[in-house]
């Protein structure tokens, strides 16, 4: 009981001293200190809130005709939605992935955006990159070689984008249409694209040391380019939007948009 009374007396003394100290502080300084404390509290709260609400946006990008829209519908409702349609606007929706509809319990919806692949419409991609949790870059494995330059340039621009680099946005190089016999393998596509991007590194740095198109440079100086050198993680997978063989794409999405 005596200990409790002693602690009470000490607390009252500290409280009294604290009040006397605050009263001695000139009002302008006191108000400034309170304002700083309030702003610091708001900032810390905002940071914690932002960390808790991670993005659920996944972008489907790639050249026109690569099969992005077909993948979009397979992921959304399990349909192939055959037929290539060049859209002037992104095809997007927020939904639980089709294969997860049979799961019990709550599953976090994914905001999936199929970005137009036509060169004149790629500015749309810039609008979505800052909020992307992940990017699925779709490559036509059947018609890969005729388009290798255009495909590599498009991916190069994504991998050197400021938002992608700073946020370390993971990228899945999705080799689509691998159900076809004459389709190239993911390893072949990966190696050829690394070689093509290595050429781009040389040609673009030769044009200007301050390339206004790209915010960052790729690779390690003095070494041949490899996707393992990127600031963000780049993985390679095979898929078929036509037959619904998209397990690797679904797994990639769920790895970066937690259920």
UniProtKB/TrEMBL annotation:
Transmembrane segments: 30-50
Entry keywords, A to Z: Endoplasmic reticulum, ER-Golgi transport, Golgi apparatus, GTP-binding, Lipoprotein, Membrane, Myristate, Nucleotide-binding, Protein transport, Receptor, Transmembrane, Transmembrane helix, Transport
Lipid bilayer topology: Single-pass membrane protein
Origin: domain of life: Eukaryota
Gene3D superfamilies assigned to the protein according to its UniProt record, in alphabetical order: P-loop containing nucleotide triphosphate hydrolases
Alphabetical list of Pfam families matching this protein: SRPRB (PF09439)
Keyword Kinase recorded: no
PROSITE patterns noted in UniProt: ARF
Main location: endoplasmic reticulum
Subcellular location: Endoplasmic reticulum membrane; Golgi apparatus
Family: Belongs to the small GTPase superfamily. Arf family. Belongs to the SRP receptor beta subunit family.
Record's protein name: Signal recognition particle receptor subunit beta
Gene from which this protein is expressed: LOC104700782
